[in-house]
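Quick one: structure for this chain?
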Amino acid sequence: MTSSFRFLFITQDDPFYVSCFFSDFFKTYSALDEIQGVVIQSPLGKKSTWDLARQMYDFYGPVDFLRVGMRYARVKTLNKLATPSSKSQWLNLKGLCQAHGLKVIYQDDIHQREFLDTLRFLDLDLIVSVAAPSIFRRQLIDLPRLGCINIHHAPLPRYRGMMPNFWQLYHGEKSVGITIHKINPKIDEGEIILQKQVPVESKESLDALIMRTKRLGAHYMMEAIDLLRKDRVEYKENRPEQGSYFSFPTREDVRKFRQMGYRLL
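Got it. Here's what it folds into:
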């Protein structure tokens, strides 16, 4: 690998799943000096804390919501106790970045002129989206030499949109997809760089599946970055009319999900 390749991550401040991706990526990637920074946005975009809590309550229901709340409190407490120098498994995303000597940038409006000027100064080859809650506009997409790429946990063009692992289990899929694709101004419609299938394990909860595929996704992302660096990508078409799109599950969707024998946690 050569340190002349320069890229940057845009992601969100998620206490449970996003850190799984970055923990594996930072531990395994052999050229961390290529990473020019990690841009962290607020979770799920512009939702208020109340709206986010309400959405999570509707999704999990009272019992699982309480379990998630207790888990959140535990994770937050352990985050505060962990130190970046220890590279503890309980580090949050900011702590993980600091432990590996990487710059953290908090920026909700990624299309702000001053922010775009900062990125231009970095002379980036690539921007990598990992659960970024913002839709990228053309001025950002065109900024790096090789454009922007995203990881989506579904076999695009099928299962575009939100909560793809939930919807794949809901529809009885025996394996779930992981797709790394170029970003264009539409949602999950860019050309496909790399696509993998991951078998669903027996009695695996949605929570466990998301964590496992986040970690696997980190390794697939390394593979995709290497293909881009070496100009060896064989792009595949990603035609939305041949696929499907799903929004955030409703209470009724979750009820049916549980009736089929699946667990959220």
